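Long-time lurker, finally posting.

We've been working with Trypsin-like peptidase domain-containing protein (Acidovorax facilis) and I want a structural starting point before designing mutants. I don't trust myself to interpret raw outputs, so I'm hoping someone here can both generate the structure tokens and explain anything notable. Sequence follows.
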Amino acid sequence: MKNGMMWRMGVAWGAALALLAGCGGSGTEASAQKAASVLMVDGWVQPASVDQGVSNIKSRSALVTAPTPSRVSLGALDASKTASLGGGIGPRQVGTARDVVATRAAAQTQQQLQWKPTATGGKVAAISFSAEGAYGLRLGVVVKALPQGTVLRVYSQANASKVFQISGQEVLQRIERNAQAGDTTLDGQTWWTPDTGSDEATLELELPVGADASTVDISVPRVSHIFENLSIPTEAELSTKINESASCHLDATCYDTYATERNAVARMLFTSGANTYLCTGTLLNDSRSSGTPYFLTANHCISKQSEAASLQTDWFFRSPTCNSRTLSSATVQRVNGASLLYASGAMDMALLQLNDTPPAGAVFAGWDAGTQALSTPVVGLHHPRGDLLKVSLGTLNSLISCTPTSETQFQCSGTTGNYYQVNWTQGTTEGGSSGSALFKGGTHVIGTLYGGGSSCTATTVPDYYGRFDVAFNAALKNWLSSATPPTGPTGRVPVYRFYNSAGLEHFYTSNVGERDLLIKQFGSNFIYEGPIFYAYPVEGSNQDSNLFPVYRLVDLARKMHLYTANPAERDGLIRAFPTVALEGTAWWGQAAPGNGAMPVYRYFNRSTNTYFYTTSAAERNYINANLSQQYLEEGIGFYVWADK
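Top reply, 14 upvotes:
Generated this for you. Predicted structure of Trypsin-like peptidase domain-containing protein:
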């Protein structure tokens, strides 16, 4: 494969492929053996060797020259809207919704996008949004259609050299996931940009060569105005810190007994209804120590897929030394959201799977799904008011039943139920602590924080935690406790997609080394579009007995690839074209639906004589509506999965 090499397969190649259409074989679905669930799992540490994926943070020097943006100013926020929602069972609100008239619909946004040519023959445009007095902005971007190869960037004009970059395909995929979860509201149609930490945020779009700017269907009807300062000041500025938690909180860095478990906890920032909130969540291990980033928090924090998609997490968000009141340089942020796996108000618990790989050194916390004895010593690790990590020490005093009386209030009574009553002997909790894990003896998760009246001035008032054992038996065991550990592959792997802006074709690989080599050596032409689906790296799984290989062929003369699941097509191409060679098995898919697999649709591009593969309904709709003369849909090539 060469950078920028474009070629034409010609009529003979296209005709041969048409004659060899189809996909062979189907298998039978394996039945899972039943076994008792594992009820207790220890934690483990994310190794430094784990693939961290591809960073979305780019240097402006390596990108297209920044365009002069159109400007949309929202002015100052009404002071009456800046009071956060504290207490009760609600998450801590730190941002509020603001409507944007200038970009409320696609037609108005098109007027703001002043397209300019790029040096490579594409187009670029940008819009700058500002809100006086904001500590941060999240743009609510509604995307319905984008040309192939579109790139979106987000940055502040004050720091334009540091850019968050994402492919249009990834954005559409995230919005599609919201729709698949049943959220067709405005929230479900929205991609929330990362918080810029500034009162201004710029949204930039770059289109590749040949893309029609008139087909861009994008709008920004809302922004979330962050009205609390979520940064950590220096020691000298401490007296003016806006988000300082109460004085009786204990710095978690001072308690090395919990040095392992504190690395499992992350500060959460998420958006719902264009309002932005803080909570706390905890990374969980599973019974196979598979490294799947399961993340536990409260249902009253995140209960919808659109909220999960907006999640940002701050890891190692604590002081570097005991009571130093400064932020550790080890702090790492992840901004790519999550998939919601389970949410229940019955014990106020939600399980997510993070889209990002947790940073090296993060701990997948252990858990205990057994019934807990009263008087058990317990530990809470949490981010009160979004502050640096704190620790609370106490005792599990009783079981109890809790019911909400309003959106932010609840009452508890009795000696049985889905919650634990906890009394603290040291420390307390506040808004922002919601969703944080309760650790038995400081080592194994047994619950998540629902709420309570505990404070520095009411240290004897209890807090209430949803019971992990109840949620585990209801659903969490389906993800966290594998009854039949796989004997073949350790799990599915992502298949990555690149758009060759010079060759106007796509390249697919499940090989991490190949992915990174393309980005390093050919990044100017090969636009990384992220993982588009998941498949198996090898054959053999007691869960997926219908697996079969997807082959990758290359035309050595023209350096272009074809992927096929049909052995007849594979062999026919090799016989018909001397320059075509089999590179091997690209990955293993499935020949028929089942086991949660989804179809991969194959298109033949008449203009370039190349092939395009997608699982995305949004991409299919765009092609069929705008490019039907160029792309011939050939049907389903094979089946793959949306996640690991």
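Before you design anything, note these points.
The longest strand covers residues 390-404.
The chain is about 10% helix and 40% strand.
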